Amino acid sequence: MCGIVAYVGEKDAYEVLIKGLKRLEYRGYDSAGIAMIDNPGEFLHYKCKGKVSNLEEFIGEQSKKGSIGIGHTRWATHGPANDVNAHPHVSGDGKLALIHNGIIENYDVLKKELGKRGHEFKSDTDTEVLIHLIEEVKKNEAVSLFEAVRLALNEVIGAYAIVVIDKDNPRELIAAKKSSPLVIGMGDDDFYIGSDATPIVEYTNNVVYLEDGEIAHVSLDTGLKIKQLDNQEITPSIQELQIKLEALEKGGYEHFMLKEIFEQPKTIMDCMRGRVNAQKGHVSLGGISEYKDKILAAPRIIIIACGTSWHAGLVGEYLIEDLARIPVEVEYASEFRYRNPIINENDIVLAISQSGETADTLAAIKLAKEKGATILGICNVVGSTISRETHAGSYTHAGPEVGVASTKAFTAQVTVLSLLALMLAKEKGAVEASKLNRLLFELESIPEKVEEALKTDGICRFIADIYMNASNALYLGRGSSFPVALEGALKLKEISYIHAEGYPAAEMKHGPIALIDEEMPVFVVATKGASYEKVLSNIQEVKARKGKVIVISSKGDETIREMADHYIEIPHTEDMFIPLLATIPFQLLSYHIAVMRECNVDQPRNLAKSVTVE
Ligand code: M6R
Questions:
Q1: Please, which of 62, 119, 289, 464 could form a disulfide with 114 given CB 3.0 to 4.6 Å?
Q2: For 479-492, what is the mean pLDDT?
Q3: CA of residue 543 to ligand 1 center, whole Å
Q4: CA-CA distance, 551 to 556, in Å (whole number)?
């Protein structure tokens, strides 16, 4: 949520900042801005509403010189998206500039205090209050900028990742973080800062992840020094980045979302690599396996997540309960954290997050930790805050997901959950050896079957063309296909802005059936398996009310071919792996509908890739 990039060194800062902002744009795209220093004592300060391309246009032929600078792409929290509220914000005396991700919760109190001392504010943002506070402390205490930031942050309540520059000192950046990520890239003779590693990876693989409550002094003269808010010095720990630059490019696809949809055979394979070997009857999740006895002895597993990750959690509930017979509860992290939940020391809390930075999921983890539960994580972004806050976990290894609509992260999360369910079932002896073996072989064949499911692209495009102007859509599924229906509906609404609802197929008759008329497309997962016959009856109920039925069916299903208005066939698989295949056509349908409606697929309105505010 909001992107930060900063640079100090010998390079042309403008190039680094603009490139970085473009890579970060998936984090927020309401407005963008940069501040650079060419001649000490003077800022080059440009910001405007809209995307990074608007900023470039706005800067046009104006000066772009300087080898130090900060850049920001915003997802509005305090104040509407306009030129004035865009970052960077500048102190009252015009000497300091600041970019900020997060929310300063006590900004109102601070603003009033500063107002009494003569500070005047131009914007509606909490960020401007913070830079005025830093200015005030620096002046009153007559301290360095580094110290002023440290003292000011001691007065702040809330979440932040910030970078500050002083126009009189073009050789240093000051950065700090609490509950919002910040990474420092260590070049040979320069430094980069990013809210994630995407603007850094092109220049260096050596990074330092700032921890909560740390402030960094990044200087071309004295190198990197880190202190905690209480003034204690910390030795920076340099880590190697795992991501590759190619993973951040579209690779010939029109959109990141389409590229990421088509990457799924590989990402699922990467996710399984070294974790399953059907021939040897082996299934294990390295990061979690040392906790397996604890999980098996646990009275229940509580899964916490948001959005698509929560849908993956619902699939996990079906898998773990069915195979390993351990009770599972799936909670929205945002609800869980505020409702005084009953958590015991023996409970296992499993947090699922693509970004590993979602504020609500992080807060729920902290709450569960305080209550003594064991916290496990399933994350995609290596080194993310959630992956560091959990006791143990498994990465999904899907590679960077840039499209705001989650696709490959979902199937990778479901793959990890499938492995977890199988590992627990095996350890517990909850399934017969022959069944376990069959399931392991089937899991190994899933990447190939996903490849086949991707061949539905043509028919999905054809169906998209028919329904692209629908105002509403209903998605139905039963069992583990119910979360697939929820995920299908979420994909459609977030990128094409068509109102869509996911429902358990049998629930339809308890209300949503009233919505059905000849205008209403109803997307149904009706693959061969446990509740097939029941879903057929649900389809008949829709047809009887003249609804248009689009069915995801098993290959060669003649009954569906006759019954449905349109059908999309996917390969046969075991019930438990249906979500991995059935979700593919839903992703493709949403993608094509959004493209046909000329929506911004990778950066849908009002959304951001990782939601680091409550
Ligand atoms: O990074 P996380 O998995 O924690 O993010 C959770 C949700 O914000 C995310 O899944 C969101 O719903 C996506 N836009 C869905 O496509």
A1: 119
A2: 97
A3: 34
A4: 13
In this model, does residue 47 exceed pLDDT 80? yes
Pocket flag, ligand 1, residue 611 (CB < 6 Å): yes
Domain 253-431 homologous superfamily, CATH: Glucose-6-phosphate isomerase like protein; domain 1 (3.40.50.10490)
pLDDT at position 28, please? 73
Cβ of 308 closer than 6 Å to ligand 1, yes or no, is: yes
Q: Which CATH number applies to 3-241?
A: 3.60.20.10
The confidence score (pLDDT) of residue 1 equals 67
Atom of ligand 1 nearest to the CA of 609: 14
355 within ligand 1 shell (Cβ under 6 A)? yes
Q: Is the CB of 396 under 6 A from ligand 1?
A: no
137 phi, psi to nearest 5 deg: -65, -45
Q: How far is the CA of 604 from the centre of ligand 1 (A)?
A: 13
What is the average pLDDT across 549-566?
95
* Secondary structure E strands in 479-606: 499-504, 521-526, 548-554, 566-570
| Contact indicator for 73, 27 with CB cutoff of 8 Å | yes
Residue of 26, 355, 411 best suited for mutating to test ligand 1, as the one with most atoms within 8 Å of CB: 355
Active site residues: 2, 609
Say yes or no: CB of residue 404 within 6 Å of ligand 1.
Answer: yes
**Ligand 1 nearest-atom number relative to CA 308:** 10
Same topology for domains 3-241 and 452-607, yes or no?
A: no
What is the average per-residue pLDDT within 8-17?
A: 96
pLDDT at res. 79: 73
Tell me, in angstroms, the distance from the centre of ligand 1 to residue 306's CA: 6
Q: Using the predicted structure, report yes or no on whether residue 75 has a pLDDT greater than 90.
A: no
The domain limits of the chain are 3-241, 253-431, 452-607
Distance CA 568, CA 557 (A): 10
Determine the Cα–Cα distance for residues 525 and 528; give it in Å rounded to an integer: 10
H helix or E strand, kind and range, residue 388: helix 385-389
Whether 524 contacts 550, CB under 8 Å: yes
Query: What pTM value is reported for the model?
Result: 0.82
